[in-house]
């Protein structure tokens, strides 16, 4: 274990798309931001010659003897081009679980990612000896909020730290190390974050085929980033904003939503291109407004009147984008109802991600009363939705040692 430590604790945020979903497929800008819902991974050394992977959200623990895990690593890597055969390796861990087939698939995906990363980062299981990894996440799984990428980022970071690959040897003396109550929080240098981002993308490819890299990047670096024509750019001047995230719990198929929109686009390309252009312009304007709000918040003695104009622009952009997404045919009656509920309290919401159900976010401004926010949460919960009170622009991956 690194630096004489017995426990490594890593956290990474989830993410939402602020603006640009669907239009990004057609070359327009999208803006993504980290959220305050996070995954926590804890890696500890053990003395019983076993390796344990505990998936707290699924209430399951997988156990291997060290040589058994090495065999599974070798088999998985050998099946790298055959995802079905690779998944079948881990049926033994879930076959007796009282879960839906979809949930079992998510469980197997998490196990595959762990074994894959052990093979790629640790290579020889004996190098780490006996250890346990516990994964717990406050990010709803399968809701389009980056739970998979957040988990991958945490696993990569924990394994790299355990192998003493991070912090980089040449950077260790300059990395920030603050000790509090027996724990050290390490501010990782850029090259370490780039390494984490690389391996987490490889893990995401294992599960999602050909991901854009947005999710694992935002979960690594935090804050916000833009994605346009396959190019990612981090935004450095981002204010932390309070939001509600609501999961309608309406299942949807991203693939079907994207393909359905493509069919409509092919029928009326001139019309839909104009709509995509408008969504791209909203994403551009959002970036400008976020930077202005960042500077306004940083100004000494800032009052609500100094911020109100910027929040007003953000609210208008949210409303415009939601209306455009409705026009594109990717909203859902549950999302429309959600927007109506929040608007009664003067709050502004839009879907985030593929749409067709799934999740939405609601901007909470500094002048919103605690009672109105509480009432909104109450009303949305009564509709059967799940609501989280959190923030945008949260920090990226964190590493603690003890």
Give helix % range.
40-55%
Structural class: alpha+beta
Q: Flag low-confidence runs.
A: 169-182
Name the shape in a single word.
Answer: globular
Name the helix and strand elements from N-terminus to C-terminus, one letter apiece.
EEEEHHHHEHEEHHEEEHHHHEEHEE
Q: What value does the Rg take, in angstroms?
A: 22 Å
How does the major sheet shape up?
A: 10 strands, mixed
Number of strands: 14
Span of the ends, CA to CA? 11 Å
Mean pLDDT: 90
Q: Per DSSP, what share of the residues sits in E-state strands of 2 or more residues?
A: 15-25%
Number of helices: 12
Give a verbal description of the structure.
The protein has helices at residues 66-78, 83-88, 91-94, 101-122, 147-162, 190-208, 214-221, 254-267, 269-298, 304-328, 333-344, 370-382, and strands at residues 7-19, 30-45, 50-55, 60-65, 131-137, 176-180, 183-187, 224-228, 231-235, 242-247, 348-352, 359-364, 386-391, 398-401. It contains twelve helices and 14 strands. The model is unreliable at 169-182 (pLDDT under 50). Strands 1, 2, 3, 4, 5, 6, 7, 8, 9 and 14 form a ten-stranded mixed sheet that branches. It is globular, with a radius of gyration of 22 Å. Strand 6 and strand 7 (183-187) form a beta hairpin. The protein has 402 residues and is α+β, with helices and mostly antiparallel strands.
SSE topology sketch:
Layout: E1 7-19, E2 30-45, E3 50-55, E4 60-65, H1 66-78, H2 83-88, H3 91-94, H4 101-122, E5 131-137, H5 147-162, E6 176-180, E7 183-187, H6 190-208, H7 214-221, E8 224-228, E9 231-235, E10 242-247, H8 254-267, H9 269-298, H10 304-328, H11 333-344, E11 348-352, E12 359-364, H12 370-382, E13 386-391, E14 398-401
Parallel strand pairs: 3-5
Antiparallel strand pairs: 1-2, 1-14, 2-5, 2-8, 3-4, 6-7, 7-14, 8-9, 10-12, 10-13, 11-12
Helix pairs in contact: 1-4, 4-5, 4-6, 5-6, 5-7, 6-7, 8-9, 9-10
């Amino acid at each position: 274990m690194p630096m004489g430590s017995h426990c490594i604790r890593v956290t990474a945020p989830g993410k939402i798309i602020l603006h640009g979903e669907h239009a990004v497929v057609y070359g327009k800008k999208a803006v993504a931001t980290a959220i305050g819902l996070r995954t926590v991974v804890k890696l500890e050394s053990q003395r019983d010659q076993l390796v344990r992977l505990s998936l707290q959200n699924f209430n399951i623990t997988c156990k291997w003897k060290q040589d058994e895990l090495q065999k599974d690593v070798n088999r998985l890597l050998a099946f790298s081009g055959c995802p079905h055969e690779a998944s079948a390796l881990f049926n033994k861990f879930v076959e007796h679980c009282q879960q839906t087939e979809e949930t079992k698939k998510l469980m197997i995906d998490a196990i595959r990612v762990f074994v894959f990363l052990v093979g790629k980062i640790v290579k020889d299981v004996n190098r780490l000896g006996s250890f346990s990894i516990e994964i717990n996440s406050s990010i709803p799984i399968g809701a389009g909020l980056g739970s998979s990428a957040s988990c991958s980022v945490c696993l990569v970071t924990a394994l790299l730290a355990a192998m003493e690959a991070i912090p980089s040897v040449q950077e260790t003396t300059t990395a920030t190390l603050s000790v509090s109550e027996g724990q050290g929080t390490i501010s990782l240098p850029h090259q370490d974050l780039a390494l984490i981002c690389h391996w987490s993308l490889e893990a995401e490819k294992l599960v999602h085929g050909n991901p854009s890299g947005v999710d694992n990047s935002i979960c690594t670096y935090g804050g916000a980033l833009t994605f346009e024509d396959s190019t990612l750019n981090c935004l450095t001047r981002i204010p932390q904003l309070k939001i509600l995230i609501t999961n309608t719990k309406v299942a949807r198929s991203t693939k079907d939503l994207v393909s359905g929109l493509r069919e409509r686009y092919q029928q009326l390309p001139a019309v839909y291109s104009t709509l995509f252009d408008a969504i791209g312009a909203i994403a551009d304007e959002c970036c400008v407004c976020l930077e202005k709000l960042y500077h306004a918040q940083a100004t000494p003695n800032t009052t609500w009147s100094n911020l109100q104009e910027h929040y007003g622009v953000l609210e208008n952009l949210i409303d415009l984008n939601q209306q455009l997404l409705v026009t594109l045919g990717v909203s859902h009656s549950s999302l429309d109802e959600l927007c109506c509920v929040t608007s009664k309290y003067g709050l502004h919401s839009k879907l985030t991600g593929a749409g067709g159900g799934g999740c939405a976010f609601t901007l909470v401004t500094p002048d919103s009363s605690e009672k109105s926010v509480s009432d909104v949460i109450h009303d949305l919960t009564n509709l059967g939705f799940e609501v989280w009170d959190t923030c945008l622009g949260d920090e990226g991956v964190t590493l603690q040692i003890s």
